[in-house]
Each structure stands twice: as structure tokens, then as C-alpha cells.
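Exercise: predict the structure of this protein bound to nicotinamide-adenine-dinucleotide.
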Amino acid sequence: MRPFEAVQMYFHRAADELELADNVRTLLIRARREVQVQIPVEMDSGELHSFIGYRVQHNRARGPMKGGLRYHPEVDLDEVRSLASLMTWKTAVVDVPYGGAKGGVAVAVHKLSQRELERITRKFVDEIHDIIGPDTDIPAPDMGTDHRVMAWIMNQYNKYHGFNPGVVTGKPVEYYGIPGREEATGRGVGILTLKLLGRLGRKPAGTRVAIQGFGNVGTHTAKYLHEADCKIVAVSDAKCGYYRADGLDIPKALRHTLEHDRSICGYQDADQITNAELLALDVDVLIPAAIGGVITAENAPRVKAPIIVEGANAPVHPDADDILDKAGIIVLPDILANAGGVTVSYFEWAQNRQFYNWSLNRVRQELEKTLTNAFEVVWEMSKERDVSLRTAAFMLGIDRVARAATLGGIS
Ligand code: NAD
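Solution:
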């Protein structure tokens, strides 16, 4: 099953509960615009190389479209389309005034020099600058992109359109960014994990957590939960994984990644485990925070954690979701769990438009408030309608988008 088909399955489950008419479903499911561009770039060797870039603008009923930019060798149109539609429901769930979009370039970032990365980014902006903008579509970081890439995007866009810091979010703090954006997604995953534990009558202290993916989202989630007295017993990245029953030394693990080109490989004082073993660990909370589709119908029966918090986008396949649901495993879905990033992106965009700087304290407080409100509405809806948290979150998002689309009219 392709990623977009998987998102559609979740969409239809919620749409059935909402008794949404077929014509409204069609309107909401299809992307508004899908763009594919060629990015010819001269590499450091002097050789010419052509990359493919995508931007899918899914829906703008609730505001300018918003979504990350992914640089990964497996990026393709179907994946970007699925992630763009998730953004539409995500921005609606946390009630920020945006629609949904997503972009990507099929490229292995670790094989590029910094100059090559910059040239690819600027060339990509050359191709899409007329369809993005602070009032139309605002990119942000995702897998393989970071604050440096966002700075190049703003700088290149400004060459065409003049000073417009709000064209992109996730920029460096020194270059029109906002404090707290880099940590926001992981911090949000941590905040919501504690909310969920609280609702389930569990205490954070001693809660055993396993985290797959030790990049932006995974590291900040680990830091937040470690500081909240949870025991992070396992972490992994694409190449290595480590387990320690008493809990890993998270400050040491974070230092290790800083000193080893963002990799956890070579971390000491823990047993090595594979990613497959990590997903099947006997822990209280499992947090997939790497790539999509890692929990499948094949490995779902081996999941022992009673709680899964989706740090990554679409880490659970719909067939696996059914298996987890029947086993009584509670899944906090991506469109709520990892919405901290887009929430603080909204604060950054608002700051850019007001020319007024927000403090880190204010960002953190507003982030917690926004996520808590969304969590409480989703939790209540799931109880009231007797549906999973995922279906409840999709219902909330779809209902808000459908109302805006209908109220705004389509003529
Ligand atoms: P990142 O590039 O900073 O880190 C990704 C991590 O996953 C790295 O540790 C990498 O080694 C690991 N990884 C890659 N392939 C893997 C594999 N096959 N198995 C195990 N680990 C693997 O990316 P990120 O920004 O942390 O994003 C991670 C996930 O969170 C993605 O699904 C992304 O869409 C989602 N997300 C990110 C943000 C954000 O603000 N960065 C916001 C919302 C959702």
C-alpha cells in the first residue's frame, strides 16, 4: 500500500463517523496543486547532476498552506502527497490558521557537501518561488533539512520578491527565526506523552520509553522526557541502536551525537540492538520518531508497549493500526503528537509579520497551551464517540476543514 492510500484509509474511517457526503470527501481528499520540477546542479566535482523536487499544496480552506521540506533518497510524489494531506488535518487539529502542503527533493543529504546542499536548495527555490510565499505556502524543516536550508530558502526567495521573512519557518534564531522552534516537535511529543500518561493514571517517574530515530524529533523528545524523570531505555538511528534496562544516560547520548556527526553509533555503556528489536521491546511507551511505515501488519503483533506516540509522520501502517487497536494498544497519532513543530512555526510566522520578537518562555508556554487544548478535545471526542485517538483527531481536523471550505464557498 502506497503512503497516500494509507492516509486515505484513515481519512475515510473518520469521514464515515462524520457521515461526510461523497462530494465533500472528494473535495477534501484531492490535492489542490502538485508540482514536480527538475533541479540541475553542478556538483563540486564539476559534473552536472539532475535532482527531482516536489511541492504538493493540499488544501487552503483554513489559511496559507504549510508544510515541511524533506530531503531523502526515497522521496517521491505519492509520499509528498500523503504528507501534504496529513498537514491539512494537523494544522486544523491544533487550530492554527493554515492549510496543508509538503515538499521534498529525492537526494541523499549525507553524500553532499554543504555547498552542494546550498546549490540544490537555491535552484529548487528558483523553480518554485512563484507558488510559495508568506500568504500562500510556507515551507519548514523536515527530515534531512534544517535551519541552514531554511535560511537559504528565505534568502533566495527574497531575491525575487523582496524582504519576506515569513516565507519559510524554522530559520536560524539569528536570521528571523524564533527561539524554541528547533526543539518544538520533540518537546511537543514529550508534553503530549505526559498528558496521555496522566489521563491513563500513570506517573512519568520510571516510565520506560524506547525511541526510534535520534535526529531532531527523537533527541528533543528524549531530552524532555528524561528531564521529566522518565527512563529512556533505548534509542536508535538509521545505523545503530542501544538498550540499557536501567535507562540510558541521555545527556551523554546527546553529547555523543553532537561529537559524531549526529550519529549515535559508538555510544558506550549499553547493549547494541537492531531497529526491529527496539520496536518489540517490553517498554511502557514506544516512540517511533524516524521514518514512515515502520510498524506493519507483520511486526505489529510483536509490539509489547501499551502506548505508542507517533513522533514521525505515518509510522504505523493502517493494517498494523487495526492489530494494535484490537490488542488494546493506545496510539497517539502523528497529526496531534508531532504538531508542536507546526505550532511554533506559526508563532515564528506571526513574529515575522509583527516584527516583534517572542521570548523562549512565551514560546514554550503558548506551545503547551495549544497542544493541551488540542489533546483535551481529541481525548473527549474519542471517549464520546468511542473511537480511537487517531479517528478522533482525524474527525476533528476534517470537520474543521470541511466547515471552512463550505463557509468560504467554492465559486
Ligand atoms: P532527522 O533527519 O533530524 O532525523 C531522523 C532520524 O531518523 C535520524 O536519527 C536518522 O538516522 C533516523 N533514521 C532514518 N532512517 C531510519 C531508519 N530506516 N530506521 C531507523 N532510524 C532511521 O528528522 P526529524 O526532523 O527528526 O524527523 C523525523 C520524523 O519526524 C519524520 O517522520 C518527520 O516527518 C517527522 N516530523 C518532523 C518534524 C520537525 O519539525 N523536524 C515535525 C513533524 C514531524
